[in-house]
Amino acid sequence: SSSPSSSSSSSSSPLSSRTTRAASVGADVDGYDDTNDDDDDDIIAVANDTRSSALAVLGFTINDVASLTAEDVRARYRARAKACHPDRAPTKARADEREARSNATIRVRLAYESVMKNLGVMRDGDHGIGDDGEALDPFDAATLAKYFDGAERVFVNEFACLGRQCWSSCVGKGAGRFTYADETGAARYVGDDGFGSVAANAEDAAYVAWVAAEQCPEKCIHFVTEAQRDALRGHLSRAIAGDARERDDAGALIQTLLAQAAYENGRAAGALNSRRNRVATSTWVDWY
């Protein structure tokens, strides 16, 4: 799949093509070397070590805090998210290697949010409020364990979408449920609730969206929860309104959040199905 910082095809997203990018080879903005696979291994190992602090996951130390800026944190986050991303795994990588990358990507994102929050630069309103008034992260396993009711909302990653260049466009196949966004030129879901719900018009809308997702060559159509969709929509809206650097930041964050959503939603769905299928009985069973 494509991202604002790298592309798997010669075509590029209409949104990401307008962004400023770091060089695709050689030293990145924080000293990370794109060409060195050993860097990837070290970064993944630190990220997956539960003893690592948020600062350590991003490659900082406590001595850096006094002079640390939001731009420093963003630059390090972009580089480390790219280094850990499952798409960078070798073609014949084992399943556990890919899982390690996926887990590391999630921990890098959480570390980024933690450090940014402590720097006082995190925007409010991304995570919603729980029943008892606590702020919730809709991508977090604990939140999903409590509130998950199905990933039935559609979100198109407009950073990955090829727009009108796509040879298998969802807009042409989507029965009016997808359109090209004026702001980005990429596809956008405009289903029943105006931005992406397949719950209200169950079978027809769900089938159209599912077929479009299956046939999307860039795999940029995702099924997420309502809270996740709203958070992703907020990041996308800020990217559209922002400058090139903000688009890069939002693009990298959206890619990471979608990877986390796919992983955590799968786990939450399995747990939910298990609870629904559990059958209680009062019948005495003699095991001997």
Write the layout of secondary structure elements.
Elements: H1 37-48, H2 54-57, H3 70-84, H4 95-118, H5 141-147, E1 153-156, H6 170-173, E2 178-180, E3 187-189, H7 202-215, E4 221-224, H8 226-241, H9 244-277
Antiparallel strand pairs: 1-4, 2-3
Helix pairs in contact: 1-4, 3-4, 3-9, 4-9, 8-9
Describe the structure.
The chain is mainly α. The chain is 45% helix and 5% strand. The chain contains nine helices and four strands; from the N terminus they run αααααβαββαβαα. The strands form two sheets. Strands 1-4 form a two-stranded antiparallel ribbon. A hairpin with a 6-residue loop joins strand 2 and strand 3.
Helix and strand content put the structural class at mainly alpha
What share of residues is helical? 40-55%
Cα(first) to Cα(last) distance is 55 Å
Percentage of β-strand residues: under 5%
Summed over residues and divided by their number, the pLDDT gives a mean of 74
Quickly count the helices: 9
Write out the strand line-up for the largest beta sheet, numbering strands in chain order.
1-4
- Backbone shape: globular
Instruction: Compute the number of strand runs.
Output: 4
